[in-house]
Design a protein that fits this description.
4-stranded mixed sheet, alpha+beta, 4-stranded antiparallel sheet, 2 domains, paralog of FGE (formylglycine-generating enzyme), 474 residues, single chain, 9 helices
């Protein structure tokens, strides 16, 4: 039988059409996926997690966590041990004044009935004050003046940094739904009628403006639509502060000094080599200081005709050379908050996978009928702590607050074992911060060093950057 070209094309199109119309079937039951005639169970192809704004992928692995410098403070609070960190994302730079002002502006614009929300988010610019120095210009100008808009925000406490990360999660996920045509841009959202990822997932999205592109609901045979679900893989996980292990792993950046599984050189800082001066690349750059730190007593920048690091206080966040993960200023500029509660002996207690101390387990609040409670006045889902009664048969945890787990004094007694100012200078509000700052000696630039501060306090030398979990394969 002879076929002309048109017949061949038509036959090919028919075959393609037949293949395209064939529904994927469950290898377990044989039922069709994404087919309203077969119940409507959905399975979606997932190309992989997109990289959120400002983030860099940090490929996980095992590393030696702990101090690689002499313990000059004799605190013995970070002895070396091998741990594994799963793949995650980290901000390329520290959060800037401009980033943070965008956040405060949004709070003031949206929460018009709750002006205290915006006021409570403001950085404490008085952290610049020094009883024996004239720093008033920084009090007045550093946070607000455009000359400093790309400099790291300081004066932000741990609670404020955590709230910023939560807000950023919602704005990025809202942007994704707008980009996909599911929502329309709506700058007129007010009070509780604003986009919140958790509230959207449980169907509490009053006040949002929906676009023309909606998700098809296969449970309905004709024309049904539904909200985006986590199973669709469209929205991103939460922005948050990095754990201490993540931060240290990202700062150490061993990928640049390893061949296969052999790490060729033990780093002291987040850059290559054992010195604080640049030794590679262009000849004109050799000898320059790697990061923004204090060189010695009274020397924060060098002499006027050749400043050694080009900054007397902080510097723009993309200054100097990035480390081998592509992250800027992991060993200088400002120290950075991490998620962990501080304990001097955490290295003896924490898991060797995804190490972290600070878990307080919670759950979405339900009413007596098992329905999710209404969101709060700020548009956020309400969470409550898990109870010991509901975890009687559970082996991996019993109670909500695990901050003091294996730290017997505070955990077993069920009371505050760390009495601030009486038995110790730490308590369950003491949070870890990492890295050296513009006003620190190079000892603190070593990723393994660690310090702590009350979560409601802030410093002119302390900022933060965000991280995000990586779902799926590393």
């Amino acid at each position: 039988m002879k076929f002309n070209k048109l017949t061949i094309v038509l036959l090919a199109m028919a075959v393609i059409s037949t293949v395209a119309c064939k529904k994927e079937q469950s290898s377990n039951t044989g039922w069709n996926y994404n087919d309203s005639k077969w119940g409507g169970f959905e399975k979606h192809e997932y190309a992989g997690q997109e990289t959120g704004p400002g983030l860099v992928l940090v490929r996980g692995g095992a590393f030696t966590m702990g101090s690689s410098e002499q313990d000059v403070t004799y605190e013995h609070n970070n002895i070396e041990r091998k741990v594994t960190v799963p793949t995650f994302y980290m901000d390329e730079t520290e959060v800037t004044n401009n980033h943070y002002r965008e956040y405060v502006y949004w709070l003031e614009r949206v929460y018009i009935d709750y002006p205290e929300v915006g006021k409570n988010a403001l950085p404490d610019t008085n952290v610049w004050r020094n009883r024996l120095a004239y720093n008033e210009p920084f009090v007045d100008y550093y946070y607000r003046h455009p000359a400093y808009q790309d400099y790291p925000v300081v004066g932000v406490n741990w609670q404020q940094a955590t709230a910023y990360a939560a807000w950023r999660s919602d704005r990025v996920n809202e942007m994704i739904l707008i980009r996909e045509g599911i929502l329309e841009p709506d700058p007129d959202q007010m009070n509780e009628a604003n986009f919140n990822t958790g509230a959207y997932y449980v169907g509490q999205h009053d006040g949002l403006t929906f676009g023309k592109q909606q998700m098809k609901d296969y449970k309905v045979k004709k024309g049904g639509t539904r909200d985006v679900r986590m199973e669709d893989g469209i929205m991103l996980p939460d922005y948050r502060l990095p754990t201490e292990a993540e931060w240290e792993y990202a700062a150490q950046a061993n990928i640049g000094s390893s061949t296969y599984e052999n790490i060729n050189q033990k780093k002291i800082y987040s850059w290559e080599g054992l010195t604080v001066r640049y030794s590679g690349g262009k000849e004109k750059d050799r000898g320059l200081i790697y990061g923004n730190l204090r060189r010695g007593k009274g020397d924060l920048a060098g002499v006027a005709n050749k400043l050694n690091d080009g900054a007397m206080i902080t510097a723009p966040v993309a200054s100097y050379w990035p480390n081998d993960h592509g992250l800027y200023n992991m060993s200088g500029n400002v120290s950075e908050w991490v998620m962990d509660i501080y304990r001097p002996m955490s290295y003896e207690d924490v898991s060797d996978f995804n190490s972290f101390r600070g878990n307080v387990f919670d759950k979405v609040s339900l009413d007596q009928d098992g329905i999710v409670d209404l969101k709060d006045s700020l548009g956020r889902v309400v969470y409550v702590s898990v109870s010991e009664e509901e975890n009687v048969g559970r082996r991996n945890y019993k109670r909500a607050d695990n901050i003091g787990y294996l730290d017997e004094e505070s955990y077993m007694d069920g009371e505050q074992g760390y009495e601030y100012g009486v038995s110790t200078l730490i308590d369950d509000q003491a949070r870890v911060y990492k890295g050296g700052s513009w006003n620190d000696r190079y000892y603190w630039a070593s990723p393994g060093t660690r310090r702590y501060l009350d979560e409601q306090q802030s410093l002119s030398t302390l900022g933060f950057r965000c991280a995000m979990h990586r779902v799926g394969a590393p």
